[in-house]
Task: structure prediction
Amino acid sequence: MPRNEPTEVTGEWDGERSAKRRKAVRYAVPVAVAGVAAATIGLVPAFAGSGSPDLPKISAQDLIAKITKSDVQQLSGTVQVTTDLGLPTLPGGTGAGGFGGAEQGHGGAGGAASPQSKLTELASGTHTLRVAVDGPDKQRVSIVGNSADYTLIHNGADVWAYDSGSNSAVHHTAPRDTHRGAHHGAPEGLPKGLQSATPQELAKAALEAAGDTTSVTVGDTAKVAGRDAYQLVIKPKQAASTVGSIRVAVDAANGVPLKFTLTPKSGGPAAIDVGYTRVDFARPAADSFTFTPPKGAKVVNGDKAAGQAAREHGKGKDLKDLKGRKGPKDFGGLNVIGKGWTSIATLKGAGAPGGKDQLAKGDAGKFLDSLGTKVTGSFGSGHVFSTRLVNALMTDDGTVYVGAVDKQALIAAADAAK
Result:
């Protein structure tokens, strides 16, 4: 059956094509869902279905344009999220990205029902989300658990978060300007960290990174959630990147990204795999976006609680361990060096609260040795902490270098800074 030719897209597009690429993030599927800061998905056979559909050939430029022009504003379906970042296991058997369960809560407004308390849950393992969207003002997502569900609903000015396990709910008022441009992404009334667990939002981030450091081609066709799809293949050109490739399955009929798969250069299962297992582009039922707290539920006014928390932080009640440090500026400043896929974030003074060289001595040094790899260079010495995608170098004088790059790139960055 026909296959698409590997037409490569680079940063040398003409003005019109570059404009299309910049617009590629503006597809109208505002699924505001509990998300991950960095998504990783294993290749789940159930996503692909059987066989590859016979579709007309399409260039990478035209496929990106198809995403750009997509104007789908209603859908419902089931999304499977699998993350395998290779995060270290902490004492007690809990992964660094693990989540203790709804019953434990994680502070913040509403405890267990607070949206922020769900962030780390999606950073590892496999999770099922049920989503529904009806334009920029109505979204619903539920994280389906073994014994309890967590639901986030945005309906106009109201944002509700409900945890059935603790029978607790948090209500927030969405900002007045939430509707402005909301059809291009998740509503501003929802937590930013809880907006990235759909193929659409992940594809947006990947396309934003496309440029002269990126190769973009069209791969084989696929079946995703019963839909015919093209596959956009995104690969870094920079050898130091830990990203092997990203595949975005795009609905052949309407241009909506249906599946996002990020595979590390080191191989093995995908680090991020997010895709629809079921999708319907009909308008969801109106009652999908209504919510009334169940009888006996603990209901928290999130706006009031957030204001109180801000006042307490302003008084320094929860900042005792930071010894007066209030942000990156107090640590010497957050800086980003390099470009494209090999960008490295640096933060000076964040790793050595006890003073220069203290991290390398005594029990602290032994603890770091157990978690990371000891490295040396013209910068001095330090430890590299690794996952399947992101590596971090903490020097003994307290400077931290972090990026989706290999160990040698971090050492070279630290050497160049001296």
In short: The radius of gyration is 22 Å.
